[in-house]
């Protein structure tokens, strides 16, 4: 079973939902998210695989317009055996995400990228170093700013009883604040998103938000401090920050927050 996003007939749909934002993403907002665990003692080999063959394939796919972009996240907290994923690979699409590729289609992608390996060698290279935990389809609803290599991303998994009401509140209240945060360099990007597959009453996290910070220090500081409060007051002079947080708490519950680092970002040249 390969780590690469195009797994062919062996593709897995499971429960991970991580949204990464970039200005180069297509308006559709659809992206496929792959959660990966690295096999014990294979971290160096896995990183070589990512920076080598997988990077070549993703550059080729972006250049051809098959995907709109590709990002790699490394889990920072929680890490180690407690982490659901050691790495997260995200492919963005210019429209609806395509069906998983057949073996023949995967072979063509490998050849187009100039990788001198057979399909079985390509698959074995992935199997030796890691394995997929899950693979899902997500769509961002709205985004501000752009994530870049070296940023730190906080992913907030949420339970939401009324998705439409939550989205409306976020767009009205938090989005203009996020725009001010990005303009002032406190955030690199922000997004809210909904999970497409899997979905249903028993899927806990069907909504999420993402806060992308330009540094580790900024991520640790979060939304605390006088500068952030003053910025909120300038954007929403008639709504106190504490009152806004109380409103948000009635619309959603943050089930878990995970911290990632953006290790790689491949998008079309501007």
Quick overview of this protein structure:
By secondary structure, the protein is an alpha+beta fold.
3D architecture notes:
This protein is of the alpha+beta class and 270 residues long. It folds into two domains: 8-139 and 262-266, Alpha-Beta Plaits; 144-260, Alpha-Beta Plaits, CATH 3.30.70. Helices cover 34% and strands 30% of the residues. An eight-stranded antiparallel β-barrel has the order 1-3-2-8-5-7-6-4, surrounded by four helices. Helix 4 crosses helix 6 (226-235).
Layout: helices, strands, pairs:
Blueprint: E1 30-38, H1 43-64, E2 69-77, E3 87-92, H2 103-112, H3 119-129, E4 130-145, E5 152-160, H4 163-183, E6 189-197, E7 207-213, H5 216-221, H6 226-235, H7 241-251, E8 252-266
Antiparallel strand pairs: 1-3, 1-4, 2-3, 2-8, 4-6, 5-7, 5-8, 6-7
Can you give keywords for this protein?
about 270 residues, alpha+beta, Alpha-Beta Plaits, 2 domains, 8-stranded antiparallel barrel, 8 strands
CATH class of the largest domain: Alpha Beta
How many individual β-strands?
A: 8
User: What does the radius of gyration come to?
Assistant: 19 Å
Q: How many domains make up the 3D coordinates?
A: 2
Q: Biggest β-sheet, characterized? A: 8 strands, antiparallel, barrel
What are the low-pLDDT stretches, counting only 5+ consecutive residues below 50? 6-27
Q: In sequence order, what are the helices and strands, one letter per element?
A: EHEEHHEEHEEHHHE
User: What's the architecture of the largest domain in CATH terms?
Assistant: 2-Layer Sandwich
Q: What is the spatial order of strands in the main beta sheet?
A: 1-3-2-8-5-7-6-4
CATH topology of the largest domain: Alpha-Beta Plaits
Mean pLDDT: 86
């Amino acid at each position: 079973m390969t780590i690469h996003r195009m797994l062919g007939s062996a593709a897995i749909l499971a429960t991970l939902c991580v949204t990464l934002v970039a200005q180069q993403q297509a308006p559709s907002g659809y992206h496929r998210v792959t959660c990966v665990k690295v096999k014990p003692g294979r971290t160096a080999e896995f990183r070589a695989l990512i920076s080598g063959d997988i990077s070549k394939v993703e550059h080729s796919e972006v250049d051809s317009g098959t995907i709109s972009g590709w990002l790699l996240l490394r889990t920072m907290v929680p890490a180690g055996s407690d982490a659901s994923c050691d790495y997260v690979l995200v492919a963005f699409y210019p429209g609806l995400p395509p069906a998983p590729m057949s073996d023949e289609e995967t072979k063509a992608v490998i050849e187009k990228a100039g990788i001198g390996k057979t399909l079985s060698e390509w698959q074995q290279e992935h199997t030796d170093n890691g394995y997929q935990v899950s693979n899902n389809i997500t769509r961002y609803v709205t985004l501000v700013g752009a994530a870049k290599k070296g940023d730190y991303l906080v992913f907030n998994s949420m339970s939401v009883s009324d998705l439409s009401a939550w989205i409306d509140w976020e767009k009205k209240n938090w989005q203009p604040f996020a725009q001010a945060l990005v303009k002032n360099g406190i955030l690199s990007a922000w997004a809210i998103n909904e999970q497409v597959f899997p979905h249903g009453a028993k899927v806990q996290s069907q909504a999420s938000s993402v806060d992308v910070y330009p540094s580790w220090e900024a991520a640790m500081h979060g939304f605390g401090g006088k500068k952030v409060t003053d910025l909120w007051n300038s954007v929403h002079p008639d709504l106190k920050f504490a009152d806004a947080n109380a409103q948000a708490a009635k619309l959603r519950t943050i089930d878990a927050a995970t911290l990632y680092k953006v290790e790689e970002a491949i998008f079309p040249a501007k």
